[in-house]
Amino acid sequence: MAEPQRDALIDTAFGYASLGERIAATVLSGSRTGWLLLLAGFTTLSLLFLYTIMLVFTVGVGVLGLNIPVAWGFPIVNVVWWLGIGHAGTLISAILVQLRQDWRNSVNRFAEAMTIFAAGIAGLFPVLHLGRPWFAYWLVPYPATMEIWPQWRSPLVWDFFAIATYITVSVLFWYTGLVPDLATMRDRAKPRWAKRIYGVLCLGWRGAHSHWRRFRTAYLVMAALATPLVVSVHSVIALDFATTIVPGYHSEMFPPYFVAGAIFSGFAMVLTITIPLRRWLRLEAVITTRHLDIMAKTMLAAGLVVVYAYLVEHFVIWYVGDEYERYMALNRILGPYACAWWGTMAINAGVTQLLWSKRIRTSPAILFCVAIVLNVGMWLERYLIVLSSPHRGYLPAAWDTESGTMIDWLMLLGSLGLFFALLTLLLRWIPAVSIYEVKELLHERREEG
Amino acid sequence: MSELSGWLAEFDEVDDLVEAAHRLVDAGHERVEAFTPFPVEALDSVLPPPRDRVTVWVLAGATVGALGGYALQVWTAVFDYPWLVGGKPMHSWPTFLPVSFELAVLLGSLAGFLGMLIGNGLPRLHHPMFAAKDFDLATRDRFFLYLPGQNEAREALAGLDPVHLHEVPGDDDAG
């Protein structure tokens, strides 16, 4: 077996069967102890999430750092951040499949799983900060006895539809792509009960060519629908801010700015997951350093768009000359949230530039550290936007500074725990890499010789 | 299960499968079906395309979603509970677009998924094909050609140099 080429997307020494076995083995066999330990750790953290949710539901939103004028605090920072993380998964799975970027075949499966969990967790936070979370269902247009309807002119209602659609379509898209692999798992699994479960879940898939044709069409069309969807979701989130009159929120450039930030932070999270995962599941021959290199480049490109957005934002504030906007910008740099501003700039505009180096892009350990730092940077950016804007509004008598309470931090930590616990569970039950798509990739690479 | 529904020829290379499918279709066989572990695009020009179209489903779903969503908003906000907000016109159509769009995507995707399943005759818990020997390799690394019929089918497939020939028991509704 020859060494795989340094910049190869897949080790062509694999046969179809050995490649499938290699990936299916991550589910069907292998050591359980490490997995159980990881799961125990992450589950403990998710219990923390449950605890903080319980506190918010029983005591009220007063346990969080929310007050007038800063009525949007950590929960909103977390919605924007988590949802943004989810967007990279859709980008990899839906947009790149249409561009025929075949490198995505090796990473789309868990990137999509990441999307579903991140979007699901993001969807919890708006409900958590409602104050009266038991009325969340009022966003649904149903013939209520109160005889009123949702206010369709409000971006908050659009938000509900955008996030709900996003989660549903992401699950559907992910499941569609999973069906042929569940059939492979059905035929590989040894225990009868496992065969039965995979057999039912794969819907009776048998790989007929006419089935593959409809499948490919359905998959491509769903990808084509998911592409504008993902842009719309973060744009709608951005409109929640942009349609207000608060300096710092009220900006017409927010939708594209938020989408770029979403892709940037999302790729950071994909790398944060990919790098330990490929090592742990020994998938280095399937997810190669070339994949890491490409993802780091995409992250760099998105990061540069974000930096451009920072420049434009500050230029517009200076050029328009509105005194409230100017004060807001200066207050961000020098006021009580200065740490967040300088941190955001140092990380998102500074640390990102490390990705110009090919050595950093192709050395997993360093890239992993950079990705984690960039995750923090994007969280700080959202923290800065959400909290610093309303804290000094038009009326100085109403100024107040809010920051996260202990419960806020525990809730964020707990949500991370839940996210990683779900990923850990999933990796044991379904193949982490799309088996049929890497076989297709292998076939194409062989044709090319 | 006493009757055979047809025969399966097993190949271990994609190119052999495509070549064999070509020869079968050229010989005038119409009901040829291939079974592969991953989609083989080279077969698209050989085997006849499915008559139903997933895209029609998607178009229908997306249209119902967009029009239905828009109608829902107009009816609730203009007729059933008109509520003046910020002096905007009752039928402030630009603000109705995001929800219409989201619903178009939602119903379009759901319809695409359903259309794919219905066209494929899935979900289905069992199929005679699964009773054929070694058919589980179709999700692994082997490529199969199926021809319904008895002895003529067997002879036609045997002439293609397959690695193995397998009989498929049961009634003739595979494919």
Structure overview:
- The complex is a heterodimer of chains A (449) and B (175).
- Chain A contains 15 helices and no strands.
- Chain A is mainly alpha-helical.
- In chain A, helix 10 (323-334) crosses helix 11 (338-350).
- Chain B has four helices and four strands.
- The mean pLDDT of chain B is 84.
- Chain B has helices at residues 14-26, 54-80, 97-120, 151-158, and strands at 4-11, 33-35, 143-148, 164-169.
- Chain B starts with a strand and ends in a 6-residue tail after the last strand.
- At the A-B interface, helix 1, helix 5, helix 7 and helix 15 of A face strand 2, helix 2 and helix 3 of B.
- Structural class, from secondary structure content of chain B? alpha+beta
The dominant shape of chain B is rod-shaped
* SSE class of chain A: mainly alpha
How many helices of chain B in DSSP terms? 4
Work out the helicity level of chain A: over 70%
- What series of H and E elements makes up the topology of chain A? HHHHHHHHHHHHHHH
CA-CA gap between termini of chain B: 17 Å
Q: Spell the H/E element sequence of chain B.
A: EHEHHEHE
Provide the gyration radius of chain B in Å: 25 Å
Question: What is the percent of helical residues of chain B?
Answer: 40-55%
Mean pLDDT of chain A, nearest integer? 88
Dominant shape of chain A: globular
The separation of the N and C termini of chain A measures 16 Å
Oligomer: heterodimer
Short description:
The complex is a heterodimer of chains A (449) and B (175). With 449 residues, chain A is an all-alpha fold. Chain A is 71% helix and 0% strand.
Task: Write the topology of this structure.
The complex is a heterodimer of chains A (449) and B (175).
Chain A: H1 16-28, H2 33-58, H3 74-98, H4 108-128, H5 155-188, H6 192-201, H7 209-242, H8 254-280, H9 289-320, H10 323-334, H11 338-350, H12 358-361, H13 364-391, H14 406-429, H15 435-448
Chain B: E1 4-11, H1 14-26, E2 33-35, H2 54-80, H3 97-120, E3 143-148, H4 151-158, E4 164-169
Antiparallel strand pairs in B: 1-3, 1-4, 2-3
Helix pairs in contact in B: 2-3
